[in-house]
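Appendix C reproduces, verbatim, an entry submitted by the partner laboratory led by Prof. M.T., so that reviewers can inspect both the input and the predicted structure.
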Amino acid sequence: MGHVNKVSHVFTLGHVAEMLGEDEEWLFEVAEEMDTEDGQLWVVGVGEDGVMAFTDDGIENLKNLIAIHKDDPSIIGERRQALAAMIKPKTEESNEV
């Protein structure tokens, strides 16, 4: 017998934000650091882009990340700056021949 998935349910980001008393947009940014192995996944429906969701273990991992981000609120800002630097448009090269 192969791998058996033991996840029977997930909680959407909005529901988890409400459960934990956190801002949904802020929580999304915190949870972006998580991977599927951490219990974060995407649920996609017909005609939808998808919604972030969490397993029970994912919520526990998210709680740990929340504590880390509350101890150091600069993490998200630093990640935004790093991402902006990566996608920053290249300046025009000089027109020398």
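The chain has a mean pLDDT of 87. Additional entries are available on request from the coordinating office.
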